[in-house]
Write a structure and sequence with these properties.
Layout lengths: L5 E2 L5 E2 L24 H22 L1 E2 L1 H4 L2 H10 L6 E4 L6 H9 L34 H14 L7 E6 L6 H13 L4 E6 L10 H11 L8 H4 L3 E7 L3 H12 L5 E6 L7 H4 L8 E2 L17 H15 L3 E5 L9 H6 L4 E3 L4 H12 L4 E7 H4 L3 H9 L6 E5 L16 H5 L6 E3 L4 H13 L5 E4 L13 E3 L2 E7 L3 E5 L4 H13 L4 E5 L2 E3 L3 H7 L4 E9 L4 H11 L6 E6 L9 H7 L4 H11 L4
Parallel strand pairs: 4-5, 5-6, 6-8, 7-8, 10-11, 10-12, 12-13, 13-15, 14-15, 18-19, 18-21, 21-22
Antiparallel strand pairs: 1-2, 3-9, 14-20, 16-17, 17-19
Helix pairs in contact: 3-9, 5-6, 11-17, 13-15, 18-22
The chain binds thiamine diphosphate (TPP).
């Protein structure tokens, strides 16, 4: 087992008492370079990789704890299998930094998650060694099943298929659909279970209890659920012991039938601030001080924390309010609620579909569930929102965090499909708060609605000041009333952008009124009535133009025979890259200057 008792200045635990070679990392340009290293050199390399991970991730932010935990596992994978011929598939892909380092991308870590820079997830454009880049969890076993099926049908493409998955992601239903197929098929697939007993929090549910049993009583006769499903079970293996992992992987690779190698790892391994972080072992961090692991800047209130405070206040008044999270209690702001109301908080694992359908069950039995989820992960549960909740007119409140452009996590994490999806759900009311005061009011209002489902969405960006309304017409707040050329409809957090646009237009002599409908779907009839008094209507949203709020307002105006044309500003229907929110918004024409130029030139108002 790798010795890790020597603590360096940055809190990094290095290998053994021997004097480590410090320049090994430089000599690794591809996985084949790993094969000539002996046991001691591999231990030194692992220590060097950890130092590199801490220094590069602390400078720009990214997934730290998850990557520190898979250093030896990744070295072993690349020594036993021949990537890219053999397919090494990573579930989620947040734990692929070591894989990137080994496959020739170490030099680009200074650009990690920045516009035009290295992706924080696998990226097919970056390397042939990256096969899947969908960072929505629990898919890898299905991909592996497909690759194995194709290999069987096309023997000329002979290759081994390896699927690496965490114990957290294994709680997702797709995994069990895949295991049901893989086990019965008898096709050779090596599943590598990276079991650190955590998602962000300790992993929830009876599967976690089963893994705990397998981990802690290796000699006892515990039959693994994987064997029952038709996979050979190898383990548990110390995932930080490269030789042991290699032996298990090699044994699995020659079985010619499906097998699972159970590797036990420590999240944050070798970096004290991560190992000792009770919240999530520094799963993902912003810019941090590498010595302490603490954020480099003082955290300020966020949309998430305002929601978190409000839902606790509601919970104190309303014993029927329960909270549901899909393994993201703290990231979605439910930490305080869970601490105060543990019996009314349900962590269902990485299982968004179950989160929503079980919320339906709770709602039909007299509770009011608040399902707090990142907007991008609601995609998973569209059918449950539609059929299990809305068709039954159940009072469930969805709180969609990280809506709109999210920034450095890139294509899979932008929460840009939610409004277009939710616009298709009959009877669902959707609110977009523009500021902290509206967020509190709208959460209260949503939870007070008992006749059907509600959703509230807000972005990741930092929280601005409250923006008071000058008037309210119907449900719609008037933020600025300065003329009747243009009616500018702000969707939620785009309000400051719209007010900046209005200021610029006014200096050009254009009369502008800015409104915030607050409840954006279905469209407030007062808004269409108002629209009839303007020459043109513009809507601005941080979501897809296709099928979004602007689209719904345009249709409502047409149906009401409003003569003014309705134009929508929003995001194009394409996979946006990683970058800052500001950079990406600007690239999509959503900054004030671009909107003003468009209105003046294309709206005939110049
Ligand atoms: C469908 C889905 N839901 C939620 C997430 C957010 N998420 C990213 S990593 C993670 C925890 C992963 O735990 P595990 O698979 O055990 O990997 P670890 O980081 O612990 O190695 C979660 C909840 C996601 N990527 N996909």
């Amino acid at each position: 087992m790798t010795r890790v008792d020597d603590i360096t200045r940055a809190g990094i635990t290095a290998a053994g008492p021997r004097r480590p070679r410090a320049d090994l990392l430089n000599s690794i340009r591809s996985p084949t370079d790993l094969r000539r290293l002996d046991e001691n050199e591999l231990a030194d390399l692992a220590a060097e990789i950890r130092t590199f991970l801490v220094s590069s991730v602390s400078a720009v932010g990214g997934h730290l704890g998850s990557n520190l935990g898979v250093v030896e596992l990744t070295l072993a994978l690349h020594r036993v299998f021949s990537s890219p011929r053999d397919r090494i598939l990573f579930d989620i892909g947040h734990q692929t930094y070591v894989h990137k380092i080994i496959t020739g991308r170490r030099g680009e870590f200074g650009t990690l998650r920045q516009l035009g820079g290295l992706s924080g997830y696998p990226s097919r454009a970056e390397s042939d060694h990256d096969v899947i880049e969908n960072s929505h969890a629990s898919t890898v076993l299905a991909y592996a099943d497909g690759v194995a099926k194709a290999s069987a049908l096309r023997p000329e493409t002979e290759r081994l298929v390896v699927a690496v998955i965490g114990d957290g992601a294994l709680t997702g239903g797709m995994c069990w659909e895949a295991l049901n197929n893989i086990g019965a098929s008898r096709r050779p697939i090596v599943v590598v279970l990276n079991d650190n007993a955590r998602s962000y929090d300790p992993t929830a549910g009876s599967l976690a209890a089963h893994l705990h049993e397998l981990r802690s009583a290796p000699s006892a006769d515990v039959r693994s659920v994987f064997e029952v499903l038709g996979l050979d079970y190898l383990g548990p293996v110390d995932g930080h012991d490269i030789a042991a992992v290699e032996a298990a992987l090699s044994a699995a690779s020659v079985l010619e039938r499906p097998a699972l190698v159970h590797c036990v790892t420590t999240k944050g391994k070798g970096y004290q601030p991560a190992e000792q972080d009770e919240t999530d072992c520094l799963h993902a961090v912003g810019v941090i001080d590498p010595t302490t692991g603490r954020p480099a800047t003082t955290p300020r209130p966020t949309w998430t924390s305002v929601f978190g405070d409000e839902v606790v206040a509601i919970g104190r008044r309303r014993p029927d309010v329960v909270a549901i999270t899909a393994a993201m209690k703290n990231p979605v702001g439910l930490g305080q609620f869970a601490a105060e109301f543990p019996d009314r908080t349900f962590d269902v694992g990485m299982a968004e579909q179950h989160a929503v359908a079980s919320a339906a069950g709770l709602a039909m039995s007299g509770m009011h569930p608040v399902v707090a989820i990142y907007a991008t992960f609601l995609n998973r549960a569209f059918d449950q929102v539609l059929m299990d909740v809305a068709l039954h007119r159940l009072a469930v409140t969805f709180v969609l965090d990280r809506a709109g452009i999210t920034g450095p996590d890139g294509a899979s994490h932008h929460g840009i499909w939610d409004l277009s999806m939710l616009a298709l759900v009959p009877g669902l009311r959707v609110a977009c708060p523009r500021d902290p005061a509206r967020l509190r009011q709208l959460v209260q209002a949503a939870v007070a609605i008992d006749s059907g489902p509600t959703a509230i969405r807000f972005p990741k960006e930092s929280l601005g000041d409250d923006i008071d309304a000058v008037n309210r017409i119907g449900e719609t707040d008037v933020l600025l009333s300065a003329g009747h050329d243009v009616l500018l409809v702000a969707v939620g957090a785009t309000a400051p952008t719209c007010l900046a646009v209005a200021e610029k237009l006014r200096t050009r002599g254009v009369g502008v009124t800015v409104v915030d409908p607050r409840w954006v779907l279905p469209v407030d009839p007062a808004l269409t009535t108002m629209a009839a008094d303007y020459r043109t209507v513009y809507t601005v949203e941080d979501g897809l133009r296709d099928g979004g709020v602007g689209n719904a307002i345009a249709r409502a105006c047409r149906d009401a025979h409003v003569p003014a044309p309705v134009h929508s500003f929003g995001l194009p229907c394409r996979f946006l890259p990683h970058g800052t929110r500001k950079e990406l918004a600007s690239e999509c024409g959503l900054d004030p200057a671009e909107i003003v130029a468009d209105i003046l030139w294309n709206g005939g108002l110049r």
